Amino acid sequence: MKTGIITYHNALNAGAVLQAYALQTVLQRLGHRVEFINYYPQRKYTVRSFIAKSPFRMWNNWKDIINGIRYSNKGIFGQLLILGEISYNSESELNEHPPIYDLYIAGSDQIWNAFRTVQKFFFLNFAPKGSRKISFAASLGQCKIPDVLHNEIRELLSDFELISVREKNGVDFIQSLLPEKTIYHIQDPTCMLKATDYFSIAEIPNERNYIASYMLALLDKGQNKIINLIKQRLNRKIINLRNPDTCIRLSNAKNSIVTPRQWLGYMINADFVICSSFHAVMFSLIFHKPFIVIQPQLTMEQGGNARIHSLLEPIGLINRCVYGTHDSENNIIEILQKNIDWETVDSYLQNGTENSLNYLKRIL
What we know:
With about 375 residues, the chain is an alpha/beta fold. About 40% of the residues lie in helices and about 15% in strands. The chain has two domains: about 200 residues, Rossmann fold, CATH 3.40.50; about 150 residues, Rossmann fold (3-Layer(aba) Sandwich), CATH 3.40.50.2000.
């Protein structure tokens, strides 16, 4: 079966690329021809993209923009993926001349994170009428969907054969919109591959005896204090992994821009992981790396990161999520000293793999 997937395949983000690679690999192993719908809208920068409150931060913004353009032009982040022959630069091009597949999949990652508007192409609205459409572990992010968008989302999903999402609150939300359908809770596709599958594509660094950090959000004083405490207690240097145009810089670390292959290698060799990213948590579990999740204060006020909480709550690791100002030094030390039950983790990931395969087999 010829299958087309739409997701953030072109993001300069290691997690986004690796979730796409995992789904591609699983579908290929099931005997299907797979490619990603090569929708590549032009990046848009505004005046606000180039300015900041301090000259230092503004200089870093400029460097991120330049790196983003440079890495995008090189296409390094997409080398693991099979792309469709036709490249689309606008929604109108996609709607006027849609690619033709036996099956369309709205892939994983935060493609349905509709905070203010709905990106209709991520709901496969361009597919010809009567096409077979499913979603696979699509994410709604924090699932803070304005009421005014509910009817639009309901209509866009009404002709999907099967719908699965990555977070429990996302399941509940879409189920409330479409009570006549069964909405499935499916793990991110990265858990469907084994650690050895990722070893085969990773670029292993020469570095040893370090903490890997992968932070997407700015840190306050309390959160920086946690990082310094972890560094001191573990007596390890920190290698801070960065996407070309995102992720924070740490003053007490080696800041390194990494490709998805390099990102995997650094995660594999790390002694410990500090992160705020869903996929960094997922790969910490896959590679059996002790970790701690540092989340912004605003995330705590919103009830926590729904994506990470959905992953960690079933295996009793939600206490490894900290926020900074509300976490004592003793609490952090206790997390560092507590061993993770990796047998429970492996069993959970295996169950997620089986559920995902059963879901795919329903339609494939």
